[in-house]
Specification:
The chain is of the alpha/beta class and about 650 residues long. About 30% of the residues lie in helices and about 20% in strands. It has 22 helices and 26 strands. The chain has a seven-stranded mixed beta barrel with strand order 20-21-22-23-26-25-24, surrounded by four helices. It has a six-stranded mixed β-sheet with strand order 6-5-2-3-4-19. The protein is globular and about 70 Å long. About 55% of the residues are buried. The structure holds alpha-methylisocitric acid (MIC) and iron/sulfur cluster (SF4). Alpha-methylisocitric acid binds next to helix 2.
Length: about 650
């Protein structure tokens, strides 16, 4: 029987086994490349330093600075200097602030078909657009991979999304992934790798494919991947990297877990309505609602293609007086090429506010909209409050919809705009890697210092798992809790990503403003804390702060109906028990503030016995389970990945 593309790449990277295991079983993968961004990177490099490994052991490791670029105090600049000093000494490339958004730059300059990549950012699957198997992971997992260690995932189910036909003018890759989200929902990709195929893929360029794989993160998928074909080859050649091209595709008789067909001709212009990426409706159905802000950019939609189409739509027009339009081109390459071809002037003269090539407003770093605003964004997440304005409603749309609506001032279906502007994509991109700093040679590196700033504080490490634990259910939350709920980002908090004690006061604020205080009261009384949650707990970002900060506050168990993949892995890495109700209805029987106990939990994990939860407040007894590989079980017993690694396992 033939293999899927996923199976081919996984098989070529197996570390501890000869063949692929059954679905759901643990696989240890060799990782060829790693990337970090600065908001998660500071912690990842602190963890790497704690491992005592002198130099990275991957084919390529690179540290990007793109998230915390607003420097309203010394904190972010200090963190950037720290990361730069680690990169120089430990053998990593360093992408300076200004060079662009990690995923966009990686696609342009470093992605290689058929290789594995992990990144401390949930949108690392963007690399699937160029045929990589690219995963988002917690910082600790990236630190381990930098040291040459395996990355572990559960063997996924492989879903084929078969594309036929060709997109109509003004309908773009963003609409395709919104259509996938509409069908599959934010939970629909859990445990799956999504492979794209069908003759329709040949009509999509690499950056368009990357828009689609990028938002596979919003499906909860382990990752998404496109074949590597003539389109990939042309893109690599245009980036002066033709030598890394290899053709890659699934075998004709490959077997898939499921197949979903999408006729590109029939895809409509779509938008994800507030406050979830799968709350999708057609722009026509939503109607001409008044728009206050339009933002174009982010790792989803900031390629040269997206910027050129935006510029062509805006050329000779003026942004509607009641709209603020911000545009952040995804990389220095994109920005320079826009400048050279004159399209940048078209954007500026239409009234766009040009932002630096970075994540910016996507992570709440500036451009928070006005109170109650409707904000159209070409980004990938519209979680409540992420924009920095609690009552704003964010709609996720394509660059075409965003640009046309910026002119009309209301949500507008761009297909009604008449002829589609012809845009010319260059046969060769402008290649200038002068913002990439190369590492020092091993001999030079020895004498180099690592530069720690005063904002860098030690991070918490859990102790061994005790045999029995008494808890207080400090917080009870519902379904689809995101890591933005657990550990918000934004301009005010992000500078403290290396200062867990400071960050802890903001933990879960959006759900319960007294969370941190309540945890402190519980730990002062000699108990530990537990969080009770619903389905898809921890969706969204890969930030391990959503595990480390609760750990710092005394949380040692999270008990839910189901978990999102990266967050569950981060909890285990931190030494927090990720437990799931056998019967989801038991969720209803626990109230916030209840006293809970996990008797003989250590023994239950060791022997694979039953996990029992006792509710001391109402006498309830519930059965729980944990989806753990043997390695994850041993990590939890040891108190997380660092103590586990130190104990020489
Ligand atoms: C995000 O989009 O939420 C982020 C910011 O890129 C995160 C990483 C982070 O929290 O630093 C992600 O997606 O992993
Ligand atoms: Fe940056 Fe936004 Fe992409 Fe996250 S989703 S990497 S914040 S641009």
């Amino acid at each position: 029987m033939g293999q899927t593309l996923t199976e081919k790449i996984l098989s070529a990277h197996l570390l501890e086994a000869e063949t692929l295991p059954a679905v759901g079983e643990d696989i240890a993968l060799r990782i060829d490349q790693t990337l970090t961004q600065d908001a998660t990177g500071t912690m990842a490099y602190l963890e790497f330093e704690a491992m005592g490994i002198p130099r990275v052991r991957t084919e390529l490791s690179i540290a990007y600075v793109d998230h915390n670029t607003l420097q309203t105090g010394y904190e972010n600049a200090d963190d950037h200097r720290f990361i730069q000093s680690v990169a120089k000494k430990r053998g990593l490339k360093f992408s300076r602030p200004g060079n662009g958004i990690c995923h966009q730059v990686h696609l342009e300059r470093f992605g290689v078909p058929g290789k594995t990549l992990i990144g401390s950012d949930s949108h690392t699957p963007t690399g699937g657009g160029i045929g990589m198997l690219a995963f988002g992971a917690g910082g600790l997992d990236v630190a381990v991979a930098m040291g040459g260690g395996a990355y572990h995932i559960a063997m996924p189910k492989v879903t084929l999304i078969k594309l036929t036909g060709k997109l109509r003018p003004y309908v773009s890759a963003k609409d395709v992934i919104l259509e996938v989200l509409r069908r599959m929902t934010v939970k629909g990709g859990v445990g799956k790798i999504i492979e794209y195929g069908g003759e329709g893929i040949s009509t999509l360029s690499v950056p368009e494919r990357a828009t689609i794989t990028n938002m596979g993160a919003e499906l909860g998928a382990t990752t998404s991947v496109f074949p590597s074909d003539a389109v990939t080859k042309a893109f690599l050649e245009a980036q002066e990297r033709g030598e890394v091209y290899v053709p890659l595709a699934a075998d004709a008789d490959a077997m898939y877990y499921e197949t979903i067909e999408i006729d590109l001709n029939a895809v409509e212009v779509l938008a994800a309505k507030p406050h979830m990426p799968d709350n999708v409706a057609s722009v026509r159905e939503i109607g001409p609602i008044k728009v206050d802000q339009v933002l174009i950019g982010s790792c989803t939609n900031s390629s040269l293609r997206d910027m050129l189409i935006t510029a062509a739509i805006l050329k000779g027009k003026t942004v509607c007086p009641s709209v603020s339009l911000g545009i952040a081109p995804g990389s220095k390459q994109v920005l320079t090429m826009l400048a050279e071809c004159g399209a940048l002037a078209d954007l500026i003269s239409a009234g766009a506010r040009i932002l630096e090539s970075a994540c910016g407003p996507c992570i709440g770093m500036g451009q928070s909209p006005n109170s109650g605003a409707v904000s159209l964004r070409t980004f990938n997440r519209n979680f409540e409050g992420r924009s920095g304005t609690a009552d704003a409603g964010v709609y996720l749309v394509s660059p075409e919809t965003a640009a046309v609506s910026a002119i009309t001032g209301v949500l507008t279906d761009p297909t009604a705009q008449g002829a589609f502007p012809a845009i010319q994509l260059p046969a060769a991109f402008l290649v200038n890697d002068n913002m990439i700093i190369e590492p020092a040679s091993p001999a030079e590196a020895e004498a180099l210092p690592i530069l720690y700033g005063p904002n860098i504080k030690p991070f918490p490490v859990a102790s061994q798992l005790p045999n029995s634990i008494q808890f207080n259910a400090v917080l009870k939350v519902g379904d689809d809790i995101t890591t933005d709920h657990i550990m918000p980002a934004g301009a005010k908090i992000l500078p403290y990503r290396s200062n867990i004690p400071y960050m802890s006061q903001f933990c879960f604020r959006q759900c319960d403003e007294h969370f941190a205080e309540n945890c402190k009261a519980v730990t002062a009384a000699g108990q530990l804390a537990a969080v009770i949650g619903g389905a898809n707990y921890g969706q969204g970002s890969s930030r391990e702060h959503a595990a480390l900060v609760p750990l710092y506050l005394g949380v040692r168990a999270v008990i839910v109906k189901s978990f999102a993949r990266i967050h569950a892995a981060n909890l285990i890495n931190a030494g927090i028990l990720p437990l799931v109700f056998d019967d989801p209805e038991d969720y209803d029987l626990i109230r916030q503030g209840d006293s809970l106990a996990l008797p003989d939990i250590r023994e239950a994990l060791q022997t694979g016995g039953e996990i029992r939860l006792e509710n001391k407040s109402n006498g309830g007894r519930y059965k729980l389970h944990a989806h753990l590989s043997d390695r994850q079980r041993d990590m939890l017993l040891a108190g997380g990945l660092l103590p586990y690694t130190k104990q020489g396992a």
